[in-house]
Amino acid sequence: MNEMNVPRPNNLDAYWMPFSDNRYFKSNPRLLARAEGMFYHTADGQEILDGTAGLWCCNAGHGRREIKEAIQQQAAILDYAPTFQLGHPIAFEAAARIAELTPEGMDRIFFTNSGSESADTALKIALAYHRARGESSRVRLIGRERGYHGVGFGGMSVGGIGGNRKQFGALLPYVDHLPHTHGIEANLFARGLPEHGAERADALEALVALHGAETIAAVMVEPVAGSTGVLVPPRGYLERLRAICDKHGILLIFDEVITGFGRIGTNFGAERLGVTPDIMTMAKGLTNAAVPMGAVAVKNAVYDAVVDNAPAGIELFHGYTYSGHPLAAAAAIATMELHRAEDLPGRARAIEPLWQEATHSLKGLPNVVDIRDFGLIAGIELAPRPGKPGQRGTEVFRRCFDKGVLVRVTGDIIALSPPLIIEKPHVDRLYGTLADAIRAEAA
User: Fold this and answer.
1) 121, 124, 396 from 214: Cα distances, Å
2) Are 50 and 37 in contact (CB under 8 A)?
3) Rounded distance between C-alpha atoms, residue 415 and residue 53, angstroms
4) 103-150: per-residue pLDDT in tens?
């Protein structure tokens, strides 16, 4: 693309940026203007290696012709159609394609527009399920400390990141949290699944004893927690959580917005980790981020309980104007075809050993206090500067960007999640630039 065709805003004031230091950014803007393959390009033409797949979402790389053409063709045929008491063929096709990838027996798909909407939808379905079965006392929702499930009031309530909650006062009632698995000393610098900490799942038994199983509707966790700084589940932890949920009739929800669509080397984290939830959320990689879209997959038994036990008429009073939007559905179908044709989960598994070695090569650098990895995800935790938490991580992020590499920072943790098309030269450049930046911020 000719750089002359890239738009250059002359006023940054109007846009209130999400999750951003607006005051700093608008004095020191870093603008991404176009993207292709493994790279972004700034408005002034600088090449930026994408070490984060956008925001954990462009798993097939940027600017994929197949997805672009699918969106263009669909826009020319049907730009929009409502899905309340009506339908259009491509939404049904997209749902069927997703159901081909989800774990066996999870064949019912509800469309949303984002991971946040998927989280709230999953929680509402869990409540509706228990009510439909005559257990309306099950209203309590259990999340996990440091969990992230988007920014809707439901997902934010069940989530456990303090900074996302403290500005907004009272959240949903009847919510409790399991302890996180971060910071177990024996797990520091673990490769893949850490060995210690499965017993932390037993905290669910304590919540059952406290509140009563008959009050608990669902437990919601990320198979691998991403936004909080890459927390990999201890070996056996999710199996233990599944068993306790089964014992007490509690639904288990996996938030697979990050771990879905190949990120950890399988279609979904449930497959790689060997634990099947009752409800599963997704977004991000579903359309390769080309059009906003999310979805919730449920076990057939959950769908049947809600639908078959409802009186005549609408069974679930929930949905969005853009649920199953034609352009998003077209993008999803094209994306899933790319994943199948190019075996993107397989590519991730193939390069995972190289990725892991490169990740752990940072051990021993100044202020690196822990490293975590699983699939094509990595978290490099830095010691904070005294009295200035987050400053060191932010400066590493800025140094990397200025040297042509995009990483993500959450506090003093550097999180990496590249497109699944990454190759060895990209890995070398990514980690070489990151290592230099960490050394530069040693003081």
Assistant:
1) 22, 17, 48
2) no
3) 11
4) 999 999 999 999 999 999 999 999 999 999 999 999 999 999 999 999
| C-alpha–C-alpha distance, residues 126 and 135, integer Å | 11
Among residues 342, 366, 394, the one where a domain terminates is 342
Which residues face 297 on adjacent strands? 109, 280
CATH of the domain at 56: 3.90.1150.10
Task: Assess contact for 417 and 263: CB atoms under 8 A.
Answer: yes
406: which strand partners? 50
Q: Which residue has the tokens 């909080």?
A: 228
Residues 329 and 378 in one domain: no
Do 261 and 83 form a contact (C-beta atoms < 8 A)? no
Q: And the tokens for 331? A: 């993008």
User: 368 and 321, same structural domain?
Assistant: no
Q: Which domain covers residue 406, as residue numbers?
A: 3-63+343-440
At 7 the pLDDT is 58
Count: domains in the chain: 2
The domain boundary residue, chosen from 342, 360, 385:
342
- Which two tokens mark 267? 């279609």
